Amino acid sequence: MPNSSSHSGNTWFCIRLTHLSLNSLGVAVNAEQAAAISWQHQIWQCNHAAQRAGIQAGMSVNHALMLNADLEILERAPEKEDEKLTRLSHWAYRFTSMVSIYNDHTLLLEIGKSISLFKSLEHIHNLINNDLFSFKITASYGVSDTPKSAYVASFTPDPRLRRHTASELVSASIEHLDIDHKTITKLHNCGFDSLGDLQTIPGPELGARFGKALLNYLDQFWGLVPDPQTAVTPPETFHASVDFAEPIHNLQWIEQQLTRLLTDLAQFLLLRQLVCRSFTWRFYHQNNRLLKTVTIGISSRDLLTSTDKAIATFEQLTQLKLASIQLDGSFSSIELSSTQLVPVTLFNDDLFDPSPDTEQLNQLLDKLSNRLGPTALFRVVPESEHLPELANGRRSALQTTSMRETRAQYTANQVLQDEPLWLLEQPQRLSQQAQQPLLDGSLNIIHGPQRISSHWWAKLQSRDYFIARQRNGRLVWIFYDRSNRQWYLHGLFA
């Protein structure tokens, strides 16, 4: 028996997607309608209903139709299989940082440390199985101490998943080895049926008869030589979609699918420690033609405190937005994506923000903006300008400003200390007599001047500001433009 003690610290969890060709095209394995995938005029894969009719992989399409004239046949789409496998590898990142795409239909997860985090192997298995069931993905699982033995273990029927060692799989059929079919046929012709049979032949002789590739495969299977796996690195963007077997006419019919996609987004944010600033829904016709695009902005940043809270917020904003639109026609698939993802660390400068109720305001702004539109609301923000008419600007209500930035801008434009709250949009030119300003009569200057000089790089502005009293007692804010020697009214005091 080979000694595999060198790999005893690893635990590999295999997810073998047994019906990836069907599932990637939105066909359920247990669907009542008999369905099959064709490839090069032969049956590539079929669901259970087709199997009950006697249809099998490798059978010609014409033969399959003779057995069941109502058989639904779909052309295999390898690009969709690759896309589905890649998306599932990103989903599996929630269980471990070591996720590998083993072959064209299998994922391998190294979960040695994750077992402690999730309390038990059984809990991890249940979470993975429940997620894949909701994704309508059919899979078989295997757990062992090497990547290749975990793959073979996925063919072992076991109602209660347990961790096998490679040495416990000696009775496994060579049909389940992940090697080329030509080598398997050659092994069968020589009378080898199980892994145990291969152990009866010395390694050098086995390599001489069947090639070094088989010998290296077996050494990696038993853990005698390293078998490094390439880890998948999820992107800093989120993308997920759902395909429907029948066209959908009513958004209320897919609430469960919307919730599932938003749950995936919330879990993705939690695992990657990201804050979502916006996400986009896309609805597609049967021919993948875009029907509708809906973008939802988010300003609240406390959603990381609870995944449930994030999901509830995402759902509420989605419902508000979708309630205000109409879909002109049916759709066959929906897509959720987000590229506006920001690391949580970028918000650390607001840790001691003295306004703890800011998040409640942000949540209200999210609801109003997504209901009324992104341009319906704006906030007034200080600008780094000395001229009073330029000192305040407009910014989208969803575009936040850090406390540090706000304080810096506020300090920069505090040149004039006696500025009134009510400014005219543009300074109003005043009449003057003997170089003294007039506004419904003469003005009595009671305070000033305060001088500002700015915009020397464009057109120099040099002003002396005064507080003056009209004859009726009202206080006004005026300035004398030293460049053109003219008086202007700029503001009114309450």
Automatic annotation (TrEMBL):
Belongs to the DNA polymerase type-Y family. SUPFAM superfamilies: DNA/RNA polymerases. This is Nucleotidyltransferase. Keywords: DNA damage. Residues 19-154 form the UmuC domain. It comes from the Bacteria. The keyword DNA damage applies.
